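Minutes, project check-in
Item: structure for the 338-residue chain
Input as provided by the requester:
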Amino acid sequence: MKRLLAVALLVLAALGAAAGWAWWRYERAPLALAAPELQIEIERGTAGAAVGAALRRQGVDVPETLFAIALRARGDAPKIRAGNYEIAAPITLRALLDRLTRGDVTLRDLTLIEGWTFRQVRAALAKHPDLKQDTATLSDAEVLARVGASESHPEGLFAPDTYAFARGSSDLEVLKRAYRLQRAVLQKAWDARMAKPDPPPLKTPYEALILASIVEKETGRDADRVKVAAVFANRLKRGMMLQSDPTTIYGLGEAFDGNLRRRDLLADTPYNTYTRTGLTPTPISMPGRASITAALDPAPIPALYFVARGDGSSEFSNDLAAHNRAVARYQKQQRGTP
């Protein structure tokens, strides 16, 4: 009996020592890494022991038995999230598992700029090294279908903003987020227009998006944005042509060489607002929140014209005579004549 008791005590002592060793390795001992900093990837569908194997392949020396014990004790096997992670020494097994179960993935970001065209958006997505290029072979129409858009033309439908994403994410996911955000921003501004005493003559949110895209391209200074919107709203109310250079340039497409000539202003296209009244058939750029707000809540001024002063700001005029005087004045300044 004494011998059995002694053996049992030895076994318990050995188990206690093993448990203490395992706890120390899990809680306190830094894992050996192949480099001071590592990029590791846990692919979708990887679970249990396969996670430990993936970590070892990528330079994290995770003891196989200890990893299995830790997973079982924590109940973490189904909680580990796929993604890309940046880890740096020193890191313990506990800290590593905490990160993997929280989904503390490495984030990258991409900024879409106000005033960009959809062609520029696609180019920015294609150049980003951390995005999966799922749209590379898709047409614009196919991209719209994949993001769930009901519109037939992509211009202006995506919100300019900075989008954070996990390395290896699909470019389609970024576009879906940008599309949903632009819809939300536009709808909120459209709903708020009902409280305005004299809203601009726009029949649908899409028409507001078109006007906002023109305001975005015509604005050189933020303080002028609501005044620029007012000029176009006033012109729409009177049935005047918008006479916007950016819309005409957009209509020229790749034929535009950077120099807008008189013959270009006379070349009729659906986007030439020197030859056609009303709004263009689609937006011409990606408007930001400020331009959408301005399009639906322009400044309460009677201006019908504006001209660039040359410093980023604009001079606004209520009639053609005043506008012509302003044009002559600023053209002289640009030529350096008194």
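Outcome recorded: Confidence is low (pLDDT under 50) at residues 4-18.
No further action items on this chain.
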